[in-house]
From TrEMBL:
Organism, as annotated: Paenibacillus dokdonensis
SUPFAM superfamilies: PLP-dependent transferases
GO molecular function, one term: histidinol-phosphate transaminase activity
Gene: hisC
InterPro entries (UniProt xref): Aminotransferase_I/II_large, HisP_aminotrans, HistidinolP_aminotransfase, PyrdxlP-dep_Trfase, PyrdxlP-dep_Trfase_major, PyrdxlP-dep_Trfase_small
Alphabetized CDD domains for the sequence: AAT_like
Name the record gives this protein: Histidinol-phosphate aminotransferase
Family membership noted in the UniProt record: Belongs to the class-II pyridoxal-phosphate-dependent aminotransferase family. Histidinol-phosphate aminotransferase subfamily.
Amino acid sequence: MKPKSHIVNLPVYQPGKPIEDVKRELGLDEVIKLASNENPYGASPKVKEAILAELENISIYPDGGAVELTADLASSLGVNANQIIFGCGSDEIIALLARAFFVPGDETIMADQTFSVYKSNADIEGAISIEVPLVDGTHDLDAMLDKINDHTKMIWVCNPNNPTGTILSEQVLTAFLEKVPGDVLVVLDEAYCEYVTDLSYPNSIQYLDKYPNVVILRTFSKIYGLASLRIGYGVGQPEVIKLINQVREPFNTTRVAQAAAKAALKDQEYIATCRAANAAGIVQLQGAFDRLGLEYFPAHGNFIMVDVRKPSGDIFEALLRKGIIIRGGHSKYPTYIRVTVGSQEQNKAFIHALEQVLEEEKAHA
């Protein structure tokens, strides 16, 4: 049995460590997961009602085109239904973009520390990833422009960027789009956009008419609290969405996920509450980091990347033993950890554990 030669050594995506594994491996009763940027407050109560109602139809195939959900979302965004495609999480849309547009030898540009799925899907399709170093944790758009050539097919811009949490302003992003050739797709990954409170952040939907080469990715996994149901979407010009749809598998989103997303979309009051709580949590964590003398990137999503001044793997393991799961292992930032903004109580527990770990590290130095 021989696989494609170029996929043999591809890394497998490593998600945040599950709570159940940590409890079992370390014999802990209480574990707090702040590793996967999930909403600590869960989904809207209206979502749970919609899920229970949809269970009556569990034996029936889902709507392969997600027609009702598409109509609701199109109305909410102010776009046409044929400008939207749904996927099993927005990461499936990333895979579909790679499948639809890349042929071996194409080049694709991205930051050198961003969502790893861009590169892995490019690798699968035989495209060449050009990784451009971040500057102060932020995309260097001028340097990315300099890398564009006749082989460039697609540029990925994660805004807010995962894992650093930084954003690009409307002014900066617009100037960038003005200079990108029209035959190069620009994918704006906005998985965390609903958390952003900074007024300089762009309303990217307004780009679609002026820049037909823009595709926007968003998800119901983060602020909407539907991570386990795997539903995200892309928005772009109809001709681009049609091409992506042509390589999409049928029934790629479930009845339950579609029903949940429709209910979640309608409860914007709940989303506003989550946004406000997240903003307060950012202040809580930043205050603790300031007190501890730790540097961190400006946080605009629901996570913060902070420099703990020790190998992140060591801090990850030490926190794990105290029942706190975070993320480390970022190759360009070996002493940084990424922590999800939890509830006030979760943040407090994390801060206490981090203080203990840093003191223990100091004692062993």
